[in-house]
Write a structure and sequence with these properties.
The chain has about 325 residues and is α/β, with parallel strands linked by helices. It has a single domain (about 30-325), classed as Alpha/Beta hydrolase fold, catalytic domain (Rossmann fold, 3-Layer(aba) Sandwich), CATH 3.40.50. The protein has helices at about 5-10, 25-35, 45, 50-55, 115-125, 145-165, 175-190, 215, 225-235, 275-285, 310-325; strands at about 70-75, 85-90, 95-100, 130-135, 170-175, 195-205, 260-265, 290-295. Helix 10 links the parallel strand 7 (about 260-265) and strand 8. Helix 5 (about 115-125) packs across helix 11 and helix 6 (about 145-165) crosses helix 7 (about 175-190). The longest helix is centred in the middle third of the chain and has 21 residues, at about 145-165. Mean pLDDT is about 95; it is low at about 1-5.
Length: about 325
């Protein structure tokens, strides 16, 4: 068996985790990325609202997000009459619906900044994409974001056929978005007897708010996220008295039976590495189908930034979703 074939049959090939698997190009790109991120204040020092405002205006390390001319935001009813925004990019004759949750530690980010990604997925899969404008911590801690994503899923399942011409459902997200997507799958199964999602895309989620070993062993300040920032995010979204291993908060501790086929994506220097490795193993052990995509030397959120392995990772995700609905 060739090395390539062996790696494909064994996604946990130890060669992927060795230093020599990280190319000089990736090392250089990571160093440049780290320099870009350095120097600015942390969100917990200036407050989440001020940090969000700076990011939205392009005063942070990244330029203002690109808006798609065909992007639109629709308002739906959430729990208790709360209004939830869905940022939608939909092709004509959609072949399915992709329910998306954005990243940002449940404190930062917005659905309004996801147009570039939604355009890519819509074009690559033919699906209508809808990103949830869920409420953010610390202003709205758990379970606000979880409730918003659950209600968005319910609305799309009920109205997808009339709104987009299809009731074929998929789901996914990055980082905190993957955390919420996994929780939404569990809530839909357990609270609404719905297990109709064809596929899930769970990229480098935090599936254990009590912190996995890779989180605890990560540098205090890593590339984009480190041990300190992970703790700050968890403190912001998790009220005192809530068990961080509550399966609704940390899906790693849930019964994972009857979950859809899923692609898990992770970089080997991501502090959330163990979260994905553990969830992939538990997903498979529960009898579900899953793919594990590991990228040597890739940091957290590598595929939403212009880093070397992003095109490969995104192409694999899009191909996985397209196969699932075909």
């Amino acid at each position: 068996m060739s090395e390539a074939a062996a790696a494909k049959s064994n996604p946990l090939d130890p060669k992927l985790f060795r230093p020599e698997a990280i190319s000089p190009e990736i090392t250089a790109a990571n160093e440049q990325f780290q320099k870009l991120l350095s120097g600015g204040p942390d969100w917990w020092d200036i407050g989440a609202p001020a940090y969000r405002a700076a990011a939205a205006s392009g005063r942070g390390p990244f330029p203002p997000p690109e808006r798609s001319p065909r992007g639109r935001t629709i308002q739906i009813d959430g729990k208790g009459g709360h209004k939830i925004g869905l940022r939608v990019i939909a092709p004509e004759n959609a072949k399915g619906i992709y329910l998306h949750m954005h990243g940002g530690g449940l404190v930062l980010g917005s659905a309004e900044t996801q147009d570039k990604m939604l355009e890519r997925i819509a074009q690559g899969t033919g699906m209508a994409c809808a990103s949830v404008e869920y409420r953010l911590a610390p202003e709205d801690p758990y379970p606000a974001a979880w409730d918003d994503c659950e209600w968005a899923a319910l609305w799309l399942i009920k109205n997808g056929k009339s709104e987009f011409g299809t009731d074929v459902m998929t789901i996914g997200g990055e980082s905190a978005g993957a955390t919420l997507a996994a929780a939404t799958l569990l809530r839909m199964r357990d609270r609404h007897n719905y297990s109709g999602f064809r596929a899930a895309n769970l990229s480098y989620g935090n599936f254990d708010s009590s912190m996995t070993p890779s989180q605890m062993l990560s540098p205090d300040k890593g590339i984009l996220v480190g041990k300190t920032s992970i703790k700050k995010f968890c403190e912001a979204y998790l009220p005192k008295g809530v068990d961080p291993r509550n399966p609704d908060v940390s899906a790693l501790y849930a019964d994972l039976k009857n979950m859809p086929r899923t692609i898990f994506t992770i970089g080997t220097i991501d502090p959330l590495l163990d979260d994905t490795l553990f969830m992939y193993s538990r997903w498979i052990a529960a009898g579900n189908e899953a793919e594990l995509a590991i990228y040597p030397g890739a940091p957290h959120a590598f595929n939403v930034f212009p880093l070397p392995q992003a095109p490969e990772a995104n192409a694999r995700i899009d191909a996985f979703l397209k196969r699932a609905i075909s």
